[in-house]
Design brief:
With 433 residues, the chain is an alpha/beta fold. The chain contains eleven helices and 21 strands. The chain has helices spanning 75-84, 103-116, 139-144, 162-172, 198-203, 210-227, 239-251, 287-299, 314-317, 334-343, 350-364, and strands at residues 8-15, 21-26, 29-34, 44-47, 52-55, 57-62, 87-92, 120-123, 151-152, 178-181, 194-195, 207-208, 231-233, 255-259, 304-305, 382-386, 391-392, 411-412, 415-421, 424-428, 431-432. The chain starts with 7 loop residues before the first strand and ends with a strand.
Length: 433
Amino acid sequence: MPENHGPYLIRGARPFGGDPVDLLLDEGRVAAIGSDLEAPEGTEVVDATGLIALPGLVDLHTHLREPGREDAETVLSGSRAAAMGGYTVVHAMANTDPVADTAGVVEQVWHLGREAGYCDVRPVGAVTVGLKGERLSEIGAMADSAAGVRVFSDDGICVSDALLMRRALEYVKAFDGVIAQHAQEPRLTEGAQMNEGCVSDRLGLPGWPAVAEEAIIARDCLLAQHVGSRLHVCHVSTKGSVDIIRWAKERGCDVTAEVTPHHLILTEDLVESYDPVYKVNPPLRTAEDVQALREGLADGTIDIVATDHAPHPVEAKETEWSTAAMGMVGLETALGVVHKTMVETGLLTWEQVADRMSAAPARIGRVSDHGRGLAVGEPANVVLYDPAAPVEVDGAALVGKSGNTPFRGMSLPGRIIATFLRGAPTVLEGKIK
């Protein structure tokens, strides 16, 4: 666990890319903001000249693998990776072994996060027992547990039964929870290996059609509106999905949605290499889909960026395409990819990046002490980012246990210099504490 040597005086940072100011972090909060602040005795000074200051990032979709798959990631290694990516809180998905479908398992994950101390870990509870889609899990018990679960998802598997999905949506209303759906109609995607289209035809790989995602999203938006509950759509990947979510919001549906960094930049053409690092669910789509996702994130149809950080051991990815596991790591590269795809293209300002990657995910996950502004009295969850320090991604150099990054060899335009969790540095000078 990082030690807090504070207070810390951050000199010359640019909040949201604006004019430089000093920020004094003390006793877990932003104690002062101004020009040429005096450093109280015992204060450590951080030179942040040229660095952008943002609120600590919030990830609504992280796979930490513990318990059960500690060979791929642990709560400790995953939360260290999160800190290196500028995150101060992550939501740990339920598809562990055992599945996080009871109060006991979510409390175990929550306690492991507290012990690690690199970021807050908020467990996501399973919607159904064992992710089997047959009966609801202990949703109420997980909500009432020490972990205070508010997000429930069978991510990796779609809650395809409409009646069961309705019951889940009704259940979480009692405590203002949200169902996060992995939108994938199972019968339309049996054996699917990549996006269905010209490339899959040419490669002879079974296709994952866009309609398999879009049909579930449309159904669930209507269900959520019918019962008056909150729905969150995981890893949106198609133009049609963006159109449906936009339509649902215009109807008054209480729906939010996320896009991953990899779906903002990578396309199905990469599959022609047969490199399993590009195998993911939902699959990489077309350039037209990528552009629609960027535009949807820019106009607010898509509310947030979520990593879907999915670590795997080497043997699960370095194998033939058909047997390789689906998923990519993304915590340590997310902000750089958003910088490259959304800021450099003029689609988002840094203030809007803070909304999509901090404030909005905290609001959706009902995390009250994160995603706040950089103002006096607010929790001192702060990330310092150098937008002019290009970095070439190297899977072997990542802090997490797995190196299955699809961005290896790619140049990203900036890097995380420091991350502060309640005023304590988890990353300083670009290195984990």
